[in-house]
Each structure stands twice: as C-alpha cells, then as structure tokens.
Amino acid sequence: MPRIPGTVCGFGKPCDIQDGTLSLTVSPRPGVAGRYQTAPALPRKPSSAFVGGSPNDEAKSLLRPCLPRGGYGKPLSKLPLFLAQNVGSKIAISHPQLSKYLSESGVRDGDLGGPIRSALPSARYFVIHDTSTKPDNWIQRRTFPDDINTSHWTHNQRGNLNTKLDAHVFISRIGESNTAHDFSVPYSATKYTGGDHTRQPAALKLKFCHVELIQPRLGDPGIAKSDWIAPTPGFPGVQLDRLALVYIVASFRHGEWLIPAYHHNVDMGFAAHDDPQNFNLPDWDERIAEIVKDIIGVRRPGDFSNRPMTGQSG
Fold first, then answer.
1. Cα(first)–Cα(last) distance of the chain, in Å?
2. What is the pLDDT of residue 149?
3. Does residue 77 surpass a pLDDT of 50?
4. Is the pLDDT of residue 44 over 80?
5. Buried-most residue among 262, 268, 284, 301 (CB within 10 A)?
6. Stretch 145-152: mean pLDDT, rounded?
C-alpha cells in the first residue's frame, strides 16, 4: 500500500517530507539494501512537481500533461488503474518469473537498463523523455516522414540508437531499446538533477532512471526554435510496450514500483521543455498490467487452456 502523507510514512519510522520539496532527510522508501540518505534538493514551491506525501500523490503531480510550448497541465485527479494500485508498493514478481519471460521473449536485460540481478536501492523516479528529433529539412516540413514508425527511418535503426548517450535507456519507435548507462549509474538527464550547473550530488541522481523515447518534431516553418509539434499518437504501441517492460524491470531491481514522471515536470521552474508530447498514459498503464500478467502467468480472458476440454463441444 502507498505510504500515508505526513510525518510517519510507514514502516513505523518518521520521514520528514516537506511540501514543495523532494525529501530533505532520509528516504521514506527503504530500498532492498536498507535506508539511503537523500541528497538535498532544490527548493520548490507548493505548486511545483514535487509535492511530498505518498508516492501516489507525487505520481499524480509528476504525470500532469506536458503542453506544447512548455505549458503545464493540471495534476491528475487520479492515476490509471495499475499505477493507482501499485506505485510505491512492493513488486510481486519473482526472479525466475521475470527471467523466464525475458528469455522466451528474446529480450536481453542489458537492453532494459541493466542486469535484473543488480539492485537499485536508491531509485525512486522513472523519468519519461522524448528526443524531439528533427527530420531532414524539419524547419520547412509541414508533415512528418511516412516511415517514422518503420525500420527504414534512420533514427529507429540500431546503429543510430546505440550512439545516443544522454539518458540511461533509449527506445525506438519499432520497439527496440539500448542501454547507454546502467540505471545504477548516477546519470543526470534533467536540469533538476544536475543541469544548468546545479552540480547535484550522486545521491540525488541515483533516484532517477531516465528513459528517452524516439519522437520526431516539427514546428512553424522557418522558425528554428519552434519544434513543438509532435505526431499524434505520440508513440506507437510497440514503443509503449518496451517502455512498460523497462519500467517493470527497473521497479523489479528496486523492489518496489517506481514513481513515473515526465521530464517536463521534473524540470518545472527551469527553462521550459515540453516532453514527452502526446503520451497516452492510460494506454501505457494497460500495457504494464498486461505484461505483468504474462510474467506471473495469469491468464487473460480469451486465452486457451492447455488442459483437455471436457463436456460437450459445439
């Protein structure tokens, strides 16, 4: 169950979380290897992305819609079903279950942020970015290339994916991923965690797992800094499936379901971003739930049993 807001956040131990800040003292979420000190965070106003309280509260704030040109939507009144029921709670997936699923799916855990046996005790936030990639002649273009969701588009190709380094994991629009840095590496991909010369300590950076989704952008013709137009839908299903699996694996390595967040909201108060654009949160939530069912072997309606049928047929 999510922690209750206030001065006691479960486990019978105090955790002082002040409104408008990230945690200033010990983390309210012990990792699998015990408590870790939380680095001081930059000051935040009560209206900012980090609100304190329960993981559910933070997720509703950090998943507020990212509007074009750097605008902010309102915090969510509620999370979609799977996240609402699980964010901040213990993950009920065993190592054999996850290992079997990855093996049968032909997916290397090295493409999902690092080995599943390597714990992430300090992690807390799973940050979703988009790359805001500009196609050729993007300033003059009025439509997206026809092949952005195929292997023919350069930015979906493995060779291009493997060259990207400014996040932990990159996911193409054809559902392939590459790990640039293990999630255990204290890497900063936001201004809040180390950009703009804030020089945040490693202890803060370790709380954030950064995942970039390949997404093209267009803008007002002839205006170089207007790349605010994203495709609709923003991300194809196979890309959201891989993002769901990366989230599951990162949460598994931590031992509890991480708090999802959008890049734009993590950097609230800094020079504006607007990513990810056109992200379908309910769809992603459903994909997480379905993959978890597959991992733990729960049958879904419509699945056929391997047992012999009994009774009359017809």
1. 46
2. 97
3. yes
4. no
5. 262
6. 95
DSSP 276: S
Q: H helices of the chain, where?
A: 55-62, 81-86, 95-105, 158-161, 202-205, 237-254, 263-266, 281-296
Residue 309 lies in a domain: no
Residue with tokens 């840095």: 181
Q: What is the pLDDT of residue 17?
A: 32
Q: What is the pTM of this model?
A: 0.81
- List the one residue out of 210, 170, 202 whose CA is nearest residue 186: 202
Q: Which of 98, 86, 140, 38 is closest to 289 using CA atoms?
A: 86
Q: What does DSSP assign to residue 262? A: E
Is residue 127 packed enough to be buried (19+ CB in 10 Å), middle (13-18) or exposed (0-12)? buried
Q: 214 with 132: CB under 8 angstroms?
A: no
In a domain, 126, yes or no: yes
**Segments forming the whole domain that contains residue 269:** 55-296
Mean of per-residue pLDDT scores for the chain: 81
The reply to whether 187 falls in a domain is: yes
> For the segment 280-309, what is each residue's pLDDT rounded down to a tens digit?
999 999 999 999 999 999 755 444 333 333
CATH code, domain with 135: 3.40.80.10
Residue 230 counted as domain residue: yes
Q: What count of other Cβ atoms lies within 10 Å of the Cβ of residue 29?
A: 26
DSSP letters along 145-211, please? -TTTTSTTSGGGSHHHHTT--SSSEEE-TTS-EEESS-TTS----STTTTTTTT---HHHHTTEEEE
pLDDT at 172: 98
Q: Output Rg (C-alpha) for the chain, integer angstroms.
A: 20
